[in-house]
Amino acid sequence: MTSNVETSADRAAQATPIIELRHVDKHFGDLHVLKDVNLSVGKGEVVVVIGPSGSGKSTLCRAINRLETIDSGEILIEGQPLPQEGKELAAMRAELGMVFQSFNLFAHMSILQNVTLGPTEVLGLPKAEAEARAMELLERVGVASQAHKVPAQLSGGQQQRVAIARSLAMHPKAMLFDEPTSALDPEMINEVLDVMVDLARQGMTMIVVTHEMNFARRVADRVVFMADGAIVEEGAPDEFFDHPTSERARDFLNSIK
Ligand code: ADP
Ligand code: MG
Asked: ABC transporter domain: from which residue to which, for each copy (predicted)?
């Protein structure tokens, strides 16, 4: 843990950002989905992205992992441009954990196999070592007792926690969460958010797209509000939620109350 004197904002100012977007533009046909997006996420920072449906939040996350290409601008990971393809791209993707709304676990594999696959296949870890580390991670997210089941035998909340463990097994530099609790029954939301709160407290660099405003208030270093493909406003959570300056943000916050 870092000392509590140095804030994450201080660290962000000092060091090369883990993730940086410079003047990123993206169209889908005639639709301008990312408009001159500039975003810098420092080591250990937690940035929560909110905004109406269709505002480009998922496209932003997917662009960072190069699941989507961009038309212009730059995306840098620790100061390095995103590789275009091949082994370099695969290696970079492994360094950015991504957790989606749908859990995306491999249905025919056990929970343990889901978590060991990347480390054995991509990182080349021996099986025993990968399994030991996987069990630690499953323990950490509270599903170790489910290790030998298949995903369909688990609740949605448990599956999403496995998906987080699976990402962590790759030792990511940062984690991207795209509405990780939106597909969950209400009683399962907190068990997933609690895992994310722990991760944040342990210093993980995170971008989180979510509609969970309590989570944003508690955990975010910065809230970024997107509308129509642009970052309209950003700020510290209390400042943003209590005194939004743009009308778009005020309307959005009123609409979700
Ligand atoms: P959000 O995650 O904020 O709801 P998205 O990034 O998913 O927004 O989408 C932004 C806009 O881009 C929406 O209008 C959506 O319909 C459109 N869009 C997303 N993906 C595609 C795609 N693959 N092809 C065409 N349009 C897309
Ligand atoms: Mg989305």
From this structure: 19-253
